[in-house]
Prior knowledge:
Distance between the termini of chain A: 53 Å
Oligomer: heterotetramer
Helix content of chain D: 40-55%
Order of helices and strands of chain D: HHHHEHHEEEH
Mean pLDDT of chain D: 91
CATH class of the domain at 4-78 in chain A: Alpha Beta
CATH class of the largest domain in chain D: Alpha Beta
Order of helices and strands of chain A: EEHEEHHEHEEHEEEEHEEHEHE
Distance between the termini of chain D: 25 Å
Amino acid sequence: MDDKLTLTINGISVRGKKGQTVLEVCRENSIKVPTLCFHPKMPPYGGCRLCIVEIQNMRGLPPSCTTPATDGMNISTHTDRLFKIRRTVLELLLAYGDHNCLMCEKNSECELQNLVYEHGIDTVRYKTNFVPKPLDDSSSMIVRDPNKCVLCGRCVRGCLSVQVNGVIDIAARGSDSFITTFNGGLLNDSNCAFCGECVASCPTGALTQKQSRFKGRPWELKKVQTTCTYCGVGCQLELNVKDNEVVKVTTDPELGGPNQGSLCVKGRFGNDFINHPDRLKVPLVKKNGHLQESTWDEALKIVADKMGSIKKTSGPDSLAFFSSARTTNEENYLVSKFARAVIGTNNVDHCARL
Amino acid sequence: MTNSIEELENSDVILLTGSNTREMHPVISSFIKRGVVSGKTKLIVADPRRIDLVDFAEIWLRQKPGSDVAWLNGLMHVIIKEGLYAKKYVEERTEDFEALKKAVSTYTPERVEEISGIPAADIIAAARLYAAAPAAAIAYAMGITQHINGTDAVKSVANLSMLCGNIGIESGGVNPLRGQNNVQGACDMGALPNVLTAYQSVTLPEVREKFAKYWGVSSLPEKPGLTIVETIDAAAKGQIKGLFIVGENPMISDPDLHHVEEGLRKLDFLVVQDIFLTETAKLADVVLPAACFAEKEGTFSNTERRVQRVRKAVDAPGEAKADWEIMGEIASRMGYKNMKYASAEAIFDEMAKVTPSYAGMTYARLDDGGLQWPCPTADHPGTKFLHKEKFVRGKGKFHAIEWIPPAEPTDSEYPLILITGRVLYQYHTGTMTRRSEGLNGCAPECFVEINPVDAQKLGIANGEMVKVSSRRGNLTAKAVVGEMTDVGAIFIPFHYFEAAANNLTIAALDPQAKIPEYKVCAVKVEKTK
Amino acid sequence: MEPAIRIQPGKDRQVLVCRGTGCESQKAKVIFDNLEKELEKAGLSGSVETKYTGCHGFCQQGPTIMVMPAGTFYCNVTPDDVAEIVQTDLKGGQPVERLLFLDPKTKDRVLTFRDMRYFNPQRRIVLRNCGFINPEDIEDYIAVGGYDGAKKALSMTQQQVIDNMKASGLRGRGGAGFPTGMKWEFANRSVADQKYIICNADEGDPGAFMDRAVLEGDPHSVLEGLIIGGYAIGATKSYIYVRAEYPMAYERAIIAIDQAKKKGYLGKNIFGSSHDFEIKVKLGAGAFVCGEETALIASIEGKRGMPMPRPPFPAVKGVFGKPTNINNVETLANIPVVMTKGGEWFASVGTEKSKGTKVFALAGKITYSGLVEVPMGTPLREIIEEVGGGILNKRKFKAAQTGGPSGGCIPAAHFDVPMDYENLTQLGAIMGSGGLIVTDETTCMVDMAKFFLTFTQKESCGKCVPCRLGTKKMLEILTDVTKGKATLEDLDQLVALAEDVKNGSLCGLGQTAPNPVLSTVRYFRDEYEAHILKKECPARVCVRLIKFQVNPDKCKKCGQCASACPVEAITWKKKEAALIDSEKCIKCRSCILACRYNSID
Amino acid sequence: MKEKLQEIFSHHHGTRDALIPVLQDIQGEFGYLSPDAMDAAARFCRMSPVEVYGVATFYAQFKFDPVGRNIIMVCQGTACHVMGGARILEEVASQLQVEPGQTTTDGRFTLETVACIGACALAPAMFVNKDTHGRMKPEKVAEILNGTGN
């Protein structure tokens, strides 16, 4: 069966596939439709009303993120009418929140900020009696600022639909709605597993990583893709580096790998050990029953000499090697090679069983 | 894993046992949970603890610790008796079915209930649910393996999977979930006493010859070496004199720590190469500072056999160096010239030449999402799931397995069963996680999970300090009274050096895999005065 | 207009006691008990049957009772009146004159409901049985031809049933007015292993109560409508979603379902056919937005009642992801009649595009509030002046508000408008579910708009930004207007924002929430401007803008204000203008409401 | 409480679509939804507790604090508004010295508003427990409140 569709978008004929939404077709054809509550990992929500489009013979202004593309559709994505409503939506969000980009960790990575700029908003028409709410600063990993929340529900869908952790949801309704934990408590008192999916999915500064606050602006960070050092899943993540220091961990579905853009608490928040002052920096050698700082030259000489002499006097099988399930393949290969080729023993193992 | 992580989201049934997946492999648990909430997957959890995933389970089998072979045989008993197994698959693709049939014939649901404590009706229900699924996956972890009959249990799991035709199909299979980032890789690379890379046996002359040629030596040792626990024993007996430890911390991770310490102290020479001064490193004669994963290049192989790149993001602190650089320098100093490498990539390329399942891999190819072995040639796309058309060995072999009881039964002096394991916020011996502010803050101290019935009997209230003792040692920790563990069992995480659970554990080993029985030993609990 | 009701064998008369909410709250039960006692005493138990019914519709004069078959209609009955009714009427054969309805125009007592001006212009299809049958007895319903429509439908093909419905021209009475036959056809075309039909009884418009009256007074007609619709679309499962505020409707629906099950009208192989059909009742939990179809579905599924954008439409993907058809109570109550009398017959009632009748909940500043059912196209004036008896206290008609929070108003200039979908839409009001609130010169239209916006703002689910925050901002502006703090620029902003909320919102709630504002600005801009420019509330409702001073030029010196004042803040002597002591005044507006001459500023 | 919850659960099928009826029954029994009860309902309906909380707070019907022995509901429907319902609410609130949604300190009354009870012909209307009081006037409030049980 042919699953190709032909649609007209903004007067231009484009191709799509059956099963795609209007938004997906737009994106594949490089037509930029603004979105806020949309997230590619999550079921569409249709709440922010920014991705609305006009479709011939269709009532109202359907959101492109939920509307299935059908053959022959005639779609307009950037009419004056749409622009006017999008602007109103953005201004309302600005009017009922505390969006101060200068003091926001998310500055330059904020989707709301970008949308406001793209819509040429330099002043907010609406004066409101917005009353700020207190921050939830209880956790050592995540800061929640309800005043920057746009209720797009992405954190909730990340928690409920992607991670299926069930920690947060939207409570109450209407303009009283807010993101909550069970019974409205602090995040740290909740059943949160701190996977950080919510933080990663938040388009604004409402959810940010605490440890990395004030450690570097987005444009100062160099991102290096690597594989997580914790469990056997092998999540792909990005170490965010500033001045030779890992200040933050992020991930992205685009990185590939088994985790599809998710992480757990250890992968996302557990890499501060890298910079820990306890890290070993120089070789230590036991002298008079105490370990003392030494040089590579001295330490390696002792190791080579001592192993050589044990091999000589007691035979290769009196030496043994514990390799590690935490070092790389290359290094495990080398430990095996070392034991077998250099020493001549099969006494090599690692903690696979422990 | 025979199959891939993402396939779990589409399994019709997942039998999950001996894995607290939500804490140990949170990312994998999300795939499972998504499958369940979407209505696609029915989950069967077999676990002595009421782990979080029980909330998502259709059926929860709460077995007594150490009874896995029995209930697995029980499931197969029902499946065979009711004719629910994959007859065509069994006939065409497996062998020794009759032996299995005979072995499980005595494991009636009633007898299994007696051994495992699982109600007979639940055994039957679980068997029917599992057998009816077009694609059923089994996922397990150390809860299955860390027993004196761990190998038997693993074989039983494989028996069950084959019986219903689930090996070699998408979203099915037998899927051990690896606990550490590169256990898979360390095994693949031959950091094992009996095999070289890709499980090429040291006992085969042609294998030794091949490696000797590539490594530029005249011969390689043919006698399988000692495992970790055997090494410690041998050290204690004075047979091992020198030990080189790379990034391991047996002073917390190994069973019966008093015995471990005794062995290590008896050594003539101990080298520890690590990123922190671990409990083990403190006993060393020489400690070599290593670079951590963020400071070097290389590859890890994950639990689904996916080989992925590790990349350098920052410089190592001080004079610390990558392990591979250190090993190379020592080898040079010992007169061996074939371990000088310009880069990690050069090592990988050499390894790939002697490793059939990695032969088609290069760093360049790995850059795009990694590759799953076997990947034998440069144009091979990698392997999503194993045994697709036929088993690697030809026919799938059924093993007739009999259940044996745990090594150390409870008695009047030590009346409770100790289960050890992990918690979400800590990792293994805590070397890294206990130095992470956020993680350690969430789980800063050891605890003892105890059922309210036992707690009341012992006069213990939630949050009180208790002393737990076994024949080998003791520890003191806070009691957490709750329904997580069943009556008669307690649980203690092993991450904490100040209350090291392995003070208590027994070094009883599985005779085949040499795995210690971490999941069952006899202990007593008392209120501290 | 009255059905051929069933009377117990051997009895020749029947006393129908209204147990609608209005009468029930005024001791209808005591009246009923007294009636039985008195009949016993008078030895009439053998010949007179007593019966509880649903709402008679004439709530203003409740409690009401009717003696059938004569049709004698007694108003404002108290428990003490019962003995006299038994003795004089039932035993003596003479009506109790003083309890008969007094026609305000002719000043005559009217003997039967058939002759009452309130009932006369009405044409009852939906309410055909309400007030005449015992809603808790299926036999009563069967006696008036109940379930004949269902039997007939089951003997036809699905397409024939749908075609009949299309021929009737019946449009959804929930508000949007979508043709029911077409809706069924869509659901019928969806292929699935399970389909659902849902009765939307979440009557959310605060001012409408016809769905409640039907479910309470004639629940089987709704069940029958569901059976017919279920058969037509191929649904075997059904829900009635009733709002929690209607406990009696809930209970009666449950009783009706039990009785229908016992009869074999529900369950497996209904009416001996091969069709299965079951109905469950779900109680809402207090959310107006759940009247919206997709929100209602979410609510049935146990979720937050937040709407989903359409498509997919419920007819394709509804409750539990299955094709679902939703009809409201009034629509469903029409359906048995459409079946028995035929689509063509039904189409003969009403106007060209709006067929059948419409039930209006007549309330507000009207003499006789209650439920009235008139043919589509009946002029507003006739409903208010003939049926409703005109404006309360002979004040001046200002506007009629229809469609509740989603609707708008019809000003006096359009008093003769025929009430049908098209005309109302054109005026910027909507048919909605049939709430018809009458206002007079003491109603402030800004306050009215603010009232509705307060409601929608509170009931907004919060999912989409225009509705969540746009209505909030609109309410802030309206509040400023009523306080005299707004400017003309604010008014412009209000209108501009209203347009964006209307066009930009996700669901019907947000899309229609600005209607009360747009409509009142359209017809009563002068009132807005008076608030803004003169800091005056012409209707003297907005307390912050009222001086609470007697205007001596207008004062007729009658003293009504002084006697209405609850705190004795008004001094008045005969032939003198009254004086309000501002120290004592609590600004309760009792004086303003009491003054017939609008002489308090 | 456990037994009563079990009794309530026994009348329902433990799936998500039973949640609202379950919560209604719980509130019917205890007068409000305690965190423990919501947690139990979550387990029964196989949802996470926070989802139950999200659902419960969405609907106006549910209460999260114990209610008074008598519930006063003042109708805020359109007809009631036009006929002076706001004034009735004001009067009740001032006599009881509570805001809508609150309970008097002695636990005797809880004051609530309702969007519309469909008794528009009786506007303005208020309800004391199950009794309807139509065509209300502010001066009738005191008498009605006094006539209500402790």
